[in-house]
Amino acid sequence: MGECAACGRSGANRRCSRCKSVSYCDVECQSKHWLHSHKFRCSSVASEAQRIEKLVGDERDVKVAHRDVLTEKLRQGNVVLKEVGTMKSRRRRRAPKPDLFPPQLRDFSYKESADGIDENLLLLLHGLGDTHKKFSSLAEQMELPQTATLAVSGPIVFPEELVDDGRAWFTAFDENWNLIQPTETETRRILSLKETSKLMNLLMDALTSHCGWTRDRIHLLGFSQGGTVALDMALRACGPYRLGSVVAISSSLLPESFLQSTEQNDVTCEQNACTSVLMTHGNQDKVVNRTDVLRSADRLRKAHASMDVQLHTLDKDHAMVSSRREMQILMEFWAKHLHCHMVNLEQNATVYEVSHSQ
Questions:
Q1: Which domains does the chain have, with CATH numbers?
Q2: pTM score, whole prediction
Q3: What's residue 261's pLDDT?
């Protein structure tokens, strides 16, 4: 029993036999309501109800039919309603296995997102002489939402007498274990970085073809030498190869690349389809020259006119993220570029994507 559509009294136990959508106290109330109001809408309501009943036979199909009717009506108003997957239908990505990666990059640590939704992947690249282990712990402490982490050790292994369990991403020392200095004719670091780029591309191919990510959901965080690798990848990460984002801490592109004018090898991207870059640098950094950092930002902007390149100078030396302010800068950057779902909404409801038709 419901409320009478004519007089408003509760306890109405008669219903319109045609549409079954309104209740009445008695025949008199039904007759009055029919003449003044209900006859103008009963037929359309009934026809829609009959259409739904014809389409379906159980409660689940009723929901689908209502969706179809609503979709059709929205299309008539130049609006398209499209059902998309809910969180219940989403699963974790496949964890990478060592044999998927090049042999030189099989020393890594992978962690699924703590919240159970692997929508993004943060790929961490350490500095010269370090390994992936510390960076895996850092990623775990940051707890980025809906983001799995992959910390990888560089392909070049240091001799034990030089550094215990140390790695490098590209050649850094000469035959006497002195740091290579950039000159107009020095090519060893450039050539070694090219080889590392090939390995990184194979790793990215494995992540996309076997583990379920797309490149625009993969984000790079590199420190020092690892940041140089990340920035070099950003130069070529445009169009279909666009990455989610690149963060480079205390790093720059190779200085010798500026001296040798290698800009002609840079790839230009499609409009509005390039990788966003964040660079942070310490005003007391004696390892990476400030001029090289500025040149790197300029080259990225020159190669990709639509690229978003942010550069922040902080009060620190050559170090990984070392202050609350620097971490806040990173988090604000990632908040713009990480792809996240509204879990509370998607857990318990059908989610629709609404757009205007052309």
A1: 1-49 (no CATH), 92-337 (3.40.50.1820)
A2: 0.70
A3: 64
